[in-house]
Amino acid sequence: MATPTRAGKRDTGTREKLLDACAEIMLDEGYAAATSRRVAEKVGVQRAVVYYYFPTMDDLYLAVLKRGTRANLDVQRRALSSDRPLHALWDLTIDSRGGQLVMEFMALGNHRKEIRAELAAGAERFREAQVAALTYILREHNGDGALPPEVVSVLIASIGRLIVIESGLGITTGHEKTLELVTEYLDRFEAPRH
To answer: How far apart are CA 116 and CA 105, in angstroms?
Structure first.
């Protein structure tokens, strides 16, 4: 990855527009469609402007990924500090739009080691923050410790992501009953104590 020395020092909001455009193209058409030409067209600038802010397309992809990771950590932090943190975490996990972009980065990461490494690092930060919060939340709601926070984190992530992936492919068998079961369990788990 190129390290810009003077690239993009003077910013008038164009950098954020380029990041938004790249993410939108990746979501709508896949990562392969997110070329410098397409990103520039979407923003209404010359291709050279893309390279002014991001010396390589990998720099642009990494910036989109890092921005998304920061945003997701913030959303997760708010979800886990809500009145019903497990429900909020579940809702965050089954948000198909976020899952789609992660899938695009996973596909891109198959071809680019730096993207794969950043994706893994961001996911680890996300998981670590989640486990830390779940440790406290589960202590409040699950005094016997039957469900370790790491397990709850993996269960929520795996069930939620599988439903998102399968739904994107048009597979729905078993989803309704699984969603009902998870919601019922979370309702029982987060029921107010008397």
So the answer is: 8
Tokens of 16: 């954020």
Q: What is the pLDDT of residue 95?
A: 86
Nearest-angstrom CA–CA distance, 17 and 63 = 12
In eight-state DSSP terms, residue 83 is S
Q: Is the pLDDT of residue 146 over 80?
A: no
Size of the chain, expressed as the number of residues it contains: 194
**Residue 25, Cβ neighbours under 10 Å: how many?**
20
Say what the pLDDT of residue 117 is: 97
Cα-Cα-Cα-Cα dihedral sign, residues 128, 21, 32, 1: negative
DSSP 107-135: HHHTT-HHHHHHHHHHHHHHHHHHHHHHH
What does residue 173 show for φ and ψ, rounded to 5 degrees? -60, 125
